[in-house]
Design goal:
Blueprint lengths: L1 H47 L5 H11 L1
Length: 65
């Protein structure tokens, strides 16, 4: 009976840790999306001002993914 309780306790801890990790990753995803939106806006502004070409932007995005 003690072994079963230990196993259940370990499984609960594992589940809790997994949910905590998922929450952390979700928060990082939100932060990275915000950053990528800002970068995209800057690229569009720079293209508009002719500081960089669209070709350079495409190469940058292809390198990221």
């Amino acid at each position: 009976m003690t072994a079963i309780k230990k196993k259940m306790h370990n499984m609960k801890e594992f589940k809790d840790n997994a949910f905590d990790r998922a929450d952390q990753l979700e928060q990082k995803l939100v932060e990275h999306r915000a950053i990528s939106e800002k970068v995209l806006c800057l690229f569009l502004i720079f293209i508009r001002l002719n500081y960089i070409t669209e070709n350079k932007v495409r190469k940058f995005w292809e390198a990221q993914y």
